[in-house]
Design a protein that fits this description.
The protein is mostly helical. 86% of the residues lie in helices and 0% in strands. The radius of gyration is 24 Å and the shape is globular. The two termini are 24 Å apart.
Length: 343
């Protein structure tokens, strides 16, 4: 057994480039796990710049020079960012504030609804089970309230940091767009010796990563706008908050749709009750999720995701547990990267 493992390691680490490449991967994973909060604005800036580079290349296809296409792409980013901060962010803030103030009423409505279940379904639930449920909810509510107070204090303390990130964000995107060649060349100079394998892995990853990031961005916008349209037609409360939640839920493969369904169902149930409008809302929402999973995803990711669903879910759990949100977001690219390195 030991000899077999030794032969595997000798076959894998048979040259200097493989060893250097392995060290770089290990050091990168350690840096990400230790400094993920500090690196967050840089990661977001790189993702946005990556998207804008794709937009720039599409603009160049219309016989537009590279400098002008870069300026146009960056201008689009500034306009969209300004629109978000003047319209979407304030709207989300107002609805979030309204939701926090409305939590006691929503909680009472939920308790009233639960108390009616034994009478409506006596064969499924009895009053003793409801009493136990109320006791568990009451004990959990006190801890949740304490956590909300602590989060509010920490949120106030981190306001300056958020404002600093907002100021630095467009500056970082500008540098990653207009000076990306020098940045890439500077990073490559750190790697000694021959870089043939690294170039081969990057050439394979560049296409799939570009398709994945661009596809996820398009999927977030389409699903988010479609959810906003459905919720608005039914007059659902907190439409903007729930639409953004549903849009970003696509970042978590397979599990995100289930997670986003819970708040949508709860708000719809408390607002409409078990009425025809509630079932129509849930039906339209499930139809959206079916179309997303069976129509939109195959169209957007036919060339980007070439992994079995089992390995995708495994990657979400493993890298999400290690790196948190960014591990979930980059679970598929990291798994694709590991596959490319292994090949």
């Amino acid at each position: 057994m030991i000899e077999h493992l030794s032969n595997i390691f000798k076959r894998i680490f048979n040259n200097e480039e493989t060893i250097i490449f392995s060290v770089i991967i290990i050091l990168s994973l350690i840096a990400f796990s230790l400094f993920i909060e500090v690196l967050t604005p840089f990661i977001i800036s790189i993702i946005v710049a990556y998207l804008l580079v794709g937009l720039q290349k599409n603009i160049e296809m219309y016989n537009v020079s590279q400098p002008l296409s870069t300026i146009i792409a960056f201008s689009v980013f500034i306009i969209v960012g300004a629109a978000m901060f003047t319209w979407l962010i304030p709207l989300l803030y107002v609805q979030l504030q309204s939701f926090v103030l409305d939590i006691p009423r929503l909680f009472n409505d939920f308790l009233n609804f639960v108390s009616t279940i034994p009478a409506a379904f006596p064969d499924l639930v009895n009053s003793d089970q409801i009493s136990v449920f109320f006791q568990a909810v009451s004990s959990e509510l006190s801890s949740v309230t304490q956590n909300l107070v602590k989060s509010s204090i920490s949120g106030i303390q981190s306001t300056i940091t958020v404002l600093l990130y907002i100021i630095l964000f467009p500056i970082l995107v500008y540098f990653f767009m207009f000076d990306r060649k020098n940045i890439i060349e500077g990073c490559l100079k750190i790697i000694p010796g021959n870089r043939a394998m690294l170039s081969q892995v990057w050439s394979e990853m560049d296409i799939q990563l570009s398709n994945y990031v661009r596809g996820k961005s398009i999927e977030i916008m389409i699903v988010g706008f479609a959810a906003a349209l459905i919720f608005s037609l039914f007059g659902l409360q907190y439409t903007a908050l729930l639409s953004v939640l549903v849009g970003f839920s696509v970042l978590i493969p397979f599990l995100g749709a289930f997670i986003a369904t819970i708040p949508v169902a709860i708000i719809g149930l408390l607002q409409f009750g078990l009425t025809f409008d509630f079932w129509m809302l849930i039906g339209a929402y499930i139809l959206l999720q079916i179309l997303d999973g069976n129509v939109l995803v195959p169209i957007l990711f036919s060339d980007a995701v070439k992994l079995h669903p089992f390995f995708i879910i495994l990657a979400v759990f493993v890298f999400g547990g290690i790196f948190g949100f960014w591990g979930v977001f980059f679970a598929i690219p990291i798994a694709t990267f590991i596959k490319a390195v292994w090949n």
